[in-house]
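The record is passed on directly below:
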Amino acid sequence: MPFYFFQWTKEIIEHLAEHGVSQDEFEAIVCSPDTRSTSRSSGLPIAFGETDDGRFLACVYELEQNTIVIPITAYEVG
């Protein structure tokens, strides 16, 4: 599992909460995804994974210097 530094802001925390996603859920999926891809709409990295309560999430982020994750958005898939 890679090690990342997550750059959290109040705005992104609130944005994720609006989608029902916690910081811990976002970090867990980005660090250990079921799959990774590239977002078709933004071209940014996207990680897909299942939360402890069984929801399947897509987590979009920017990656700087291969270790700094800047969360962008997350949402439930399916």
Remarks:
- Residues 5-76 form one domain.
- The first helix runs from residue 10 to 18.
- Residues 21 and 70 are 15 Å apart (CA to CA).
- The mean pLDDT is 95.
